[in-house]
Amino acid sequence: MTIDSYLYFYMFNYKVVRDFSNTWGVKLKNIGNIKILFVEDKLDDVDTALKEIKKVSPSVEYSVISDINKLQYHVKQFEPDIIIMDYSVSISIEKNILLDLIDELKSNFLHLPIIFLSNENSEQVAVDCMNLGAYDYVVKSRIKRLPFVVSEAINKGKLLHERENMYKSMFKKSKLPMLLLDLNSDLKILDFNEAAQKFYGYSDEEFYSMTIFNLNILPREEVIKYADKAKQESQSYFNFQHKIKSGEIKFVNVYSGPVCFSGKTCLLSTIIDVSEQKKLEMKNKKLEEQLEFLNRIESIGRLAAGIAHDFNNMLTPIMAFSDVGDSITDDIVVQGYFRQIKNTAEKASKLTRQLLSLARKQALYLENIKFDDFMNESFTMLKRLTTEDLDFVLELEDDLPYVKMDSGQFIQVLINLVVNAIYALKNVKDKKLHITVYTKLFQDDDLTEYADLKKGKYVVVNVSDNGCGIDRENLKKIFDPFFTTKNSDGGNGLGLSISLGIVQQHNGAIHVYSELGVGTTFKVYLPCDGDSDESILPEKHKEKFKGCDYNIMLVEDNEFVVESIRIGLSKYGCRIFISTDPEEALKKFLSGEFKCDLLITDVVMPKYNGGELYKMMKKVKDDLKVVFISGYASTMVEDILAIDKGVSFMQKPFSISELVSLINSLMREQK
After folding, report:
1. What is the dihedral of CA 41, 47, 49, 53, to 10 degrees?
2. Is the pTM of this model over 0.85?
3. pLDDT higher for 407 or 603?
4. Do the bridges between strand 264-273 and strand 249-261 make them parallel or antiparallel, or are there none, so unpaired?
5. Other beta carbons less than 10 A from residue 383's beta carbon
6. Contact at 8 Å (CB) between 106 and 132?
7. Can you tell me the distance from the alpha carbon of 139 to that of 129, in angstroms, rounded to the nearest whole number?
8. What band does 364 get if pLDDT is binned at 50, 70 and 90?
9. Distance between CA atoms of residues 512 and 47, nearest Å
10. In the predicted model, what is the mean pLDDT of residues 347-354?
11. Which helix (H) or strand (E) holds 100?
């Protein structure tokens, strides 16, 4: 039934209303004591209305005003249960003013019903009254209908009030922060609960002066867009970041939907703090990215190591035959050619060492170094790379520990980082490059963000510049071999990848932090595992050739390497048994057909590796000397190198003179 037809029913069917209680047997129920505020300028009409209302309420307290402008004041003072307003009094002021007055009244007193009385039996008047927010409209000539209307309005008001109190209690006592936002007033915060105050940290006065824009860090337009979605119930769940009073940013899930409050549509938002969960997700994502990066570098490293190994096998005979050719000719020009070939091969071997550093398979000459001494010496050298307009500073923590490291390799890491920083600073006016060194202890709980580190104490070398910075996409690729953002004459893109390999071979890690226009910081972590009493391991063999009259068994699966070493050692007087098959070499040795003073064996071979071959032969000859050779580092035979005497390692490529010097050194130890 529409409003018009509803009113028509009451206005033109008076007999039905008059006889309502008798015809259908409906009895007027007692609604108890009530308070009525009359807005009426005729006291006789007030008496008539009271007479009817007392049929449902034997005790009525009432107050009468004739000036509608004082309505708000009297409602606050008298606190009525219902307002009965004469229509003619209400229209004594402008309609817009009346609408604002009633809207404000209903905003402050949600469930206070208003009933209009009028002498006019007009459908238009009835419609006007309903548009003004009336609960109902009663024609004075049909005043007997009034008690039914009052009874119904009071009962519904009580029910709504009870529900309001219930929901208000739920709102206020909720353990989750809740906010009520005004959709028609710039998303102003109308109400909040204690949980919201505790979460955000604002007082009552502060909250009531705020809008949601003071909390949500998104741009204003974005917040409005999401509020519209929530109002239309097209989306009720959002992921936001809210700023609390302390300035901290919290990650929150917001459940928001429209509710009716004070006669207007508002948004009720429930906030769930997911900051810890979000931080954990970010940590897990960071770990996944680190693991992905490590796996990618590991794959690249295996490829680089394989290439370097094969290349070293090719360079070894080149260097060996160059030595032989140089020694068997007296022609100075020819000797020059051979030496040039050897020099070129040595330069090529530097590239393979870089590739093996990338793959963490380059042999390290480890020594225990007092790290502050090392950094002070390195800083003097690094300053030569810089210009006078650069603020280059070194800050060291007091009494830095010893670190077991290859100083020659690690200085290359520092050079690469400093050179990159200088390049990033070329267009900066106030150039700053600071190196700070300190120690840091990592416990198990600290390693959630450092997948590439182990528990323990580390020296941290912090290289920081205020240069151009690195964007996010390039930041993911800076350690990739041959990746560079420099000009064609600015580098080959191997510096950082090689630096990473060197640091990882020292069981350390490199982390990088960068922001465009702000600068870049590299953090290099090296484990503090040095001991000031230890000496250099392994020793560098630099002794010059003094002859080599020994029985040597050479086991190497690369025929070119075998032949070049055989010819080279034979030239210096060695008697050599060669084999490309370790099983065949073992049988020859066990048969006693060849008296072996020293074994030269490749580390990686089919059937038996070099370490296994040596251990089986040593069971027969306890004083057997051995030189392990490999295109890789010495990691596969480290246990033997650490325990057995008369054991050494030489990384390919090498010259025959270097090999002879090492053999003589080992054999003299026996004597």
Report:
1. 140
2. no
3. 603
4. antiparallel
5. 12
6. no
7. 12
8. low
9. 87
10. 68
11. helix 95-108
Contact 601, 557 (CB under 8 A): no
Amino acid residing at 542? K
Reported as a single tens digit per residue, the pLDDT across 611-664 is 889 899 988 888 889 999 887 766 666 667 666 778 888 888 888 888 888 888
- Number of residues that make up the chain: 671
> Could you give the dihedral angle defined by the CA atoms of residues 218, 219, 221 and 223, in that order, rounded to the nearest 10 degrees?
20
């419609």: which residue's tokens? 127
- C-alpha of 633 from chain center: 36
DSSP 316-351: HHHHHHHHHHHHH---HHHHHHHHHHHHHHHHHHHH
Q: Which strands make up the sheet holding 625-630, listed edge to edge? A: 575-579, 551-555, 598-602, 625-630, 647-651
Residue 121 has pLDDT above 60, yes or no: yes
DSSP secondary structure of 447-495:
GGG-TT--SEEEEEEEEEE-SS---HHHHTTTTSTT---S-TTS--S-H
* Among 267, 211, 278, residue whose Cα is nearest residue 236: 267
SS3 (DSSP) at 237: strand
Residue 453, CB-side half-sphere exposure with 13 Å CA sphere? 27
Residue 18: what pLDDT? Answer: 37
Q: What is the signed CA dihedral for 441, 444, 449, 451, rounded to 10 degrees?
A: 100
What is the number of other CB atoms lying within 10 angstroms of the CB of residue 592?
Answer: 9
Tokens 């509710």 label which residue? 259
What is the structure's pLDDT at 305? 67
Place of tokens 């072996």: 596
Locate 570 and state its tokens: 């034979």
Query: Residue 510's closest CA among 577, 420, 443, 588?
Result: 420
The partner residues of 457 in beta bridges, in order of sequence, read 441
DSSP notation for 544-597: PP-----EEEEE-S-HHHHHHHHHHHHHTT-EEEEES-HHHHHHHHHHTSS--S
Please indicate whether residue 312 or residue 189 has the higher confidence score (pLDDT): 189
Q: Which amino acid is at 270?
A: T
Q: In the 8-state DSSP scheme, what is residue 294?
A: H
Query: Which is more confident, 315 or 486?
Result: 315
Task: Give the span between the Cα atoms of 636 and 609, in whole angstroms.
Answer: 9
Confidence of residue 521 (pLDDT cuts 50, 70, 90): very high
Question: Rounded mean pLDDT of the chain?
Answer: 80
Q: Are 217 and 232 in contact (CB under 8 A)?
A: no
